[in-house]
Design brief:
By secondary structure, the chain is mainly alpha-helical. It contains 5 helices and no strands. α1 packs antiparallel against α2, α1 crosses α3 and α2 packs across α3.
Amino acid sequence: MPAPRKYPDELRERAVREVRSTGRPVAHVARDLGIHKEALRSWVRQAEADAGERGDRLTTAERDELKELRKEVAELRRANDILKAASVFFAQEIDRPRSQSRRPLDHTIADSMKPGAAH
């Protein structure tokens, strides 16, 4: 679970809107609202990326998608590792010499279907 945000979403939105709509310097708006200027600068950059005004940052939607894809890749890698281990196990079972007392399943079924076979 992510850490709680230091600043409420409403304050973030208000601060970004003020910087973008008034053109006031980030440092001035940050000081007036009691926000660290680098935090506000980061929010403004992210808002610009989300609006398609910046090509040097991922949008929020792209970040969310990337996070989900990374999680999916990790799950698939774990599943792949499990399948690899299972295939090694079953390959060893197939290669193991059979004892004389064990009969293949198809013969057992065929034998039980013969007339006079005990049921």
